[in-house]
Specification:
Strand content: 25-35%
CATH superfamily of the largest domain: P-loop containing nucleotide triphosphate hydrolases
Distance between the termini: 42 Å
CATH architecture of the largest domain: 3-Layer(aba) Sandwich
Radius of gyration: 22 Å
Subcellular location: Cell membrane
Family: Belongs to the ABC transporter superfamily.
Keywords: Antibiotic resistance, ATP-binding, Nucleotide-binding, Transport
Pfam families: ABC_tran
CATH topology of the largest domain: Rossmann fold
Mean pLDDT: 92
Strand order of the largest sheet: 5-6-7-3-8-9
Low-confidence stretches: none
Shape: globular
Protein name: ATP-binding cassette domain-containing protein
């Protein structure tokens, strides 16, 4: 018998006055799954996460978290969740360790257990050497790792991460991905929102692409790429030439041609053959890049625009 989903939503709607932020979505998240919401700002990701974290009740639809109803069991559900909000809200008046031990007390964890748990978590997020430091001097990446450590202090069954690496430099992002991957390997259920497509590919077993409050596609990163894109993409740059005019001359090469402001994308099963055909037609791009398709290509196909910060 299959396991019951930890998160179950049907026809989930969230309205703010006349504005519909989430417009009738269906979600199931299985135990141990890393599940992602991918989309641009304003797509409805954060509003969905606020409903799942029981800080905002649905306007319409059915929502069950850990088999319970947020409307009547919100406090009990929140006690079994770990939440990493979009913006760090650490206490600057407390040390790194105290941010964890103080937070642990909200869950009724004894002081000895809180100190033990804090030390374990600081080791896990590679902040043990900063345990006695104040929060303010920490780098953005360190603060983010501490926020994730705090989300783990109550040994949650589900960890919710709202755009966990926004604003971090590449090194900090990759270190955070490594920590989240370790949690995933331990069987922890992760639910995250992101507008970084490489992040979704790295971390998510399955994801939904949201746009305008609705789910426009769902599946594993690989299955979405296979369904909505081609195996390879050729990126062509032509200097100062008008790309819209050049795109017409590329018609019929590959399955699809998309002109962007700075380059033209040719979607094809064989990038080398497509490049050869470009030159055969007498076109002379200033640069040619053949690469595999990514989730960005999926999003371009589904919404006609790139994801933005």
């Amino acid at each position: 018998m299959p396991e019951q989903p930890l998160i179950h939503a049907r026809g989930l709607v969230k309205r703010f006055g006349d504005f519909t932020a989430v417009d009738g979505i269906d979600i199931d998240v299985a135990p141990g799954e890393a599940f992602g919401f991918l989309g641009p700002n304003g797509a409805g990701k954060s509003s969905t996460m606020r409903m799942i974290s029981c800080v905002s009740l649905p306007t319409e639809g059915e929502l069950r978290i850990l088999g319970m109803d947020p409307a009547s069991d919100g406090a009990q559900i929140r006690g079994r969740l770990g939440v990493c909000p979009q913006l760090d809200n650490l206490d600057p008046d407390l040390s790194v360790r105290e941010n964890l031990t103080t937070y642990a007390r909200y869950f009724g964890i004894s002081r000895p257990d809180a100190r033990r748990r804090a030390d374990e978590l600081l080791e896990f997020v590679q902040l043990a050497d900063r345990a006695g430091s104040q929060v303010e001097p920490l780098s953005g990446g360190m603060k983010r790792r501490l926020t994730i450590a705090r989300a783990l202090v109550n040994d949650p069954e589900i960890i919710l991460l709202d755009e966990p690496t926004t604003g971090l430099d590449p090194q900090a992002r990759h270190l955070l991905w490594e920590r989240l991957f370790q949690l995933k390997r331990r069987g922890t259920t992760l639910v995250l929102t992101t507008h970084y497509m490489d992040e979704a590919e790295q971390l998510c077993d399955r994801l939904v692409v949201m746009d305008g409050g609705r789910i426009v596609a769902e599946g594993s990163p690989r299955s979405l790429i296979e369904t909505y894109s081609t195996p390879e993409v050729v990126e062509l740059r032509f200097g100062d030439e008008r790309l819209a005019d050049l795109a017409g001359k590329l018609a019929g090469i590959g399955q699809r041609v998309d002109p962007l402001p700075d380059r033209i994308l040719v979607y094809t099963t064989d990038g080398d053959a497509a490049t050869t055909e470009v030159h055969r037609r007498g076109l002379a791009p200033s640069s040619v890049l053949v690469r595999r398709s990514t989730l960005e290509d999926v999003f371009l196909h589904l919404t006609g625009r790139t994801l933005v910060d």
